[in-house]
Write a structure and sequence with these properties.
mainly alpha; 10 helices; 3% strand
Length: 192
Amino acid sequence: MAVRLGCPPSLCTLLLDAGADVDAPDFYGHSPLWAAVYGKRAGHVALLLARGARVCQWGPGSRVVPLPWNECPLHEAVRQGWQWCQPLVSAGAGLGARGLLRVALDRGDVGTAKGLALAAGLRPSREWAPLPEDDWLAREMTSPPPLSRLCRYAVRACLSRAAGGRDLRPRAPLLPLPPHLVRYVLLDPLGP
């Protein structure tokens, strides 16, 4: 509620320190993270992710349970561009959310589509038409993704499940991997 009403991050910190639920929905049914993205409040997004706001849900059989579009912070971020998607995707949002790739492409936002494809393991479909003209997009639809990207997606999915759908970044350094591979898993740098 405090995020929806535009309270400063310092007040939100006090409320969270006092025991407020980081995922408590507001009077519209939106999570604080969704409201922060909707309101373009970068400080709130960072605070909520650091405090364990849920970025995805895992169901039985280790499958991602998609949130309805009006409750999904990443769906709202896709509407606003990659700069709003990046912190959520880095934290583990978007795993298996292929529909969001379609939303970005329908908006003509190839930059956001590319970020989602590289970070969340998503691939565009040839059946989606019309698509923006772009060399990268044409290559993505005609060739399989690199094995390194598929491995990164699998490791990120395991970390997300282990984190209960919350920010996976604190768990990545615990992996028995060399530092350059941990950075790759953490999308630093974002590349194939």
